[in-house]
Every structure is written in C-alpha cells, then in structure tokens.
Amino acid sequence: MRFANAYVLAALVLIPLFHRVWRRRNEPARVRFALPIPKSVRRFDPTRILLVLRYVAILFVVLALARPQESHRSTQRQVSGVDLMMVLDLSASMNIEDLAEESRMATAKRTMENFIKRRTDDRIGFLVFSGEAMTAVPPTLDYGLLLAALRKADTGQLKDGTAIGDGLATAVGRLKNSKAKSRVIVLLTDGENNVGQVDPLTAGDLAAGYGIKVYTIAIGKEGRVRMPIRRKGMLGETVTTYQWFDNQLNPDLLKQISKATDGKFYRVEDKATLENVFADIDRLEKSEIKTNEKVRYDEIFGKPLLASLLVLGLERLLARLWWRVLP
Question: Do residues 229 and 236 make contact, with C-beta atoms less than 8 angstroms apart?
C-alpha cells in the first residue's frame, strides 16, 4: 500500500497541538446522565472519551485525504525456450568403473540429473539406446517425470550393442517439428557404432538439415579397462568379479557429427570434466527470458473515510443521548 498524497499526513501533528489548546481553554463541565448508571461509573469523565473519538475521526479523515492505494502487480514472461533431447548410451560397457571407482553409467546419470534441475523453461526429452533406440520421455516441461525415467534407466534394458546412428536419428525425429528457437541434442556414449540401421554421419546430416545442434560426449578411458560382472552367490548375496578388456572409442566420428550440426564435441575421462561439460552446455543453450512487469494502483480512500463517519456518528450519538453534557 502507498499514499498518493503522503504530504497530507503531516497534518496529523496538529492533533496533539489542538489537544493542548483544548485542555487550557476548557474547564470541567457538569454531566447529566440520561439513563441510570452506577455510582462507580459516574466518577469518570466521559468528555475525554468523546474527545478521543473526535480525534480518531479526524485521523481517518487525514488518511483518506492522503489517498491510500493498493498495488497490484502483474508479470508477463516471454520465454524463447530450448527444446532439448538427452540421449544416453545403455550398452553394457557403460558399467565399466574407470571414473574414480564409479561406473560411467552412474556418473552420467547423476550429472544429467543435475543438468535437468538447473533448467526452468525448456522442454526436455530423454532417449536411450544400445543395440536399438527407445524414447523414454518426449520433450516435456514435466521435469519430475523426466527425472524418474532417468533414474530407472540402466544397462540391459535393450538389446546389446551401440547403435549411435539409430539413437541420433530417433532424437532428430522428436525435434524436427519443434517451433522452439533453439533445438539441441546431447548425445553421451562410450563406444563405437557397431549395429543399427542408420549410419551415424547420415543421422548427423539429418540433424543439420533441420537446424538441430548436436553436442556429443565421449565418456570413459581408452585402452585396458575393467568391467564388473555381478551374479548371485550360493546364499543369495551379490558377488562381483571383474573382467579386463580393451576399450575402443571413435572420437573422430563424434567430432564430425558435432561439426556438421554447429555443435561441440567433448572428451570426458573423469567426473569433474563431465560436470564442466554440462555446465558449458547449460551456458551455451540458456533460455532467453524477457520480463514485463505492470503495476496497477486502486484507490481505497473510501475505507478510512467510512471509518471516520462511523466514529463521528458514534461520538454524536453518545454526546446527545448517553453522555449528554450540560453547560
């Protein structure tokens, strides 16, 4: 609330000055009670109460003259959002523990989750692939649904293999009809394309044709790595053993896809680097938000004016009926 004529409030200082003058000029008056009242009540001076009521009425009048106003704010947001598809490799090699004793899958899922939580006005979809591709969640603003699907994603859900081309082409199909200002695919994989019906470079050209950027992330170390093999023991417990083998990546393929779509390629061999990669993507593909705030002020001087009339009416009623003062 604000006062349009706030300077009028200065008149309130006149009330105590007026009261001092009144006390000096007025001597006690005789009072006749129109109705029978106990002796204990007759001892107080009702003229003081009547005077206070007049002062209260004057107070409300001054507040009304100051024009109190209520403000109502309305905010309009114009969002140039980003439609984004997150594509995650679910091949068995994602279980390899070469990122500070943590699997590639665990690191990727946690980092993707933090990335999603930082977005606010963008539609995000989630797609998984290994030997085949599957859309887990189409582009949506329901981040709760998206996070639930991400947490459930795990190796072994689809047939084995690494069909990068199929995963990328399916993601393009989800974004090609989007009207968003920016359309982006973030593809994270740890292997080389070895199965699928669509060549990865062809899928990259398809994305470029629709104006879709592709950020590719190659995660994991090359060379000799160990993969955990988990099985049930005789007593039902989980027994973990490790198998060593040579891991191969094809970073050149991912670089070509990103370059063709005006995106970027990232090489990740540790957890901290992956966090920085998604922070970089978050910065590059930020939504453009324009806020227009309007303020409307409504006059509410009628409330203190009405209060003044009620108080003054009460004072007149008491003065002429209950506490009638005789000269």
Answer: no
The pTM for the full model equals: 0.64
Q: Are residues 68 and 199 in the same domain?
A: no
Q: Per the domain annotation, does 291 fall within a domain?
A: no
Residue 313 CA to residue 235 CA, distance in Å, equals: 90
* Phi, psi torsion values for 305, nearest 5 degrees: -65, -40
Q: Tell me: do 236 and 90 sit in the same domain.
A: yes
pLDDT in tens, 16-57: 766 666 666 655 555 554 555 555 544 556 667 777 777 787
Token pair of 238 as six digits: 């989980």
Average pLDDT, the chain: 82
Q: How many domains, the chain? A: 2
The DSSP bridge partners found for residue 184 are 84, 213
Say which residue the tokens 């680097």 belong to.
273
Question: What token pair was written down for 13?
Answer: 């200082």
* Residues 85, 220: Cα–Cα separation, whole Å: 22
Contact 220, 99 (CB under 8 A): yes
What spatial distance separates the first Cα and last Cα of the chain, rounded to whole Å?
45
Tens of pLDDT, residue by residue over 229-250, are 777 777 777 777 888 877 778 8
Instruction: Give the Cα separation of 270 and 266 in Å (integer).
Output: 12
Cα–Cα nearest to 260, from 202, 317, 307, 302: 202
Amino acid type, 146: L
Name the nearest CA neighbour of 51 among 67, 29, 79.
29
